[in-house]
Amino acid sequence: MRSAHAVIPAAAALMVLVLLSALSQTEACNKALCASDVSKCLIQELCQCRPSDGNCSCCKECMLCLGSLWEECCDCVGMCNPKNYSDTPATSKSTVEELHRPIPSLFRALTEGDAPINMMVVSFPVAEELSHHESLVSFLGQREDQQQNISLPKNSIHARYDSTRGPDNLCTVVYFDDCVSIRQCKLYCESMGGSKYRWFHNACCECIGPECLDYGSKSVKCMNCMF
Ligand SMILES: *[C@@H]1O[C@H](CO)[C@@H](O)[C@H](O)[C@H]1NC(C)=O
Ligand SMILES: *[C@@H]1O[C@H](CO)[C@@H](O)[C@H](O)[C@H]1NC(C)=O
Ligand SMILES: *[C@@H]1O[C@H](CO)[C@@H](O)[C@H](O)[C@H]1NC(C)=O
Description:
Domain Tsg N-terminal: 28-86
Structural class: alpha+beta
Strand content: 5-15%
Order of helices and strands: HHHHHEHEHEHEHEE
Low-confidence stretches: 1-8, 142-163
Largest sheet: 6 strands, mixed
Keywords: Developmental protein, Glycoprotein, Secreted, Signal
Mean pLDDT: 78
Main location: secreted
Distance between the termini: 35 Å
Domain Tsg C-terminal: 90-226
Helix content: 25-40%
Shape: elongated
Organism: Lepisosteus oculatus
Strand order of the largest sheet: 2-4-6-5-1-3
Bound molecules: 2-acetamido-2-deoxy-beta-D-glucopyranose
């Protein structure tokens, strides 16, 4: 994989950079979420046609390439109309995903006692977690390279926690101080043994612990990434 990236001709890389910087001027395109996947599809020249001009010869391939990010990112490649996000701030929108192999003991160990550097640990009653109305959240589905049985681990996790933990329990989440990409967010939360993660569209990352019943807190609390 790495060597494949290394041999991409400089011209192609430059083209992608130019395209991406052009895309970033499109107000609606969610660059923080889409940039890496969009550039992958652009490098492979899978999204070159222009449906707005009646040429949708590439639409299907482009859609397959973007996968679960299609809905969020199709406007970044000119495949769909730009979304109008101007009425809602990025901090009120988030993307959540369940992680496949949570390690509850690891997450608890990392979040107990002194707060680790560069992050903030927040605990609150799970009742509070469930009381807020979910506004603008998108759920990332499973990637195509993962198993089809997506409901099995999810159900077993819920069953286990529902039977052993009541609404008085605390939901513990971790916020990283700095802004990170959604990919980094997922990686960090996986490496902490988290059960889920929530990535706010201002690039604030929240890892969600095993006791949480829903998708953690809906408030942005990343110290260096609040807007
Ligand atoms: C549609 O777009 C593709 C990719 O840019 C191009 O190769 C093809 O010639 C176009 N077809 C038409 C009918 O314009
Ligand atoms: C986006 O929505 C806002 C408020 O709903 C509206 O004022 C604005 O004209 C819209 N912008 C576009 C490009 O549709
Ligand atoms: C997926 O589900 C099928 C039946 O629904 C089951 O037979 C199979 O073992 C499951 N695979 C995994 C990896 O859990």
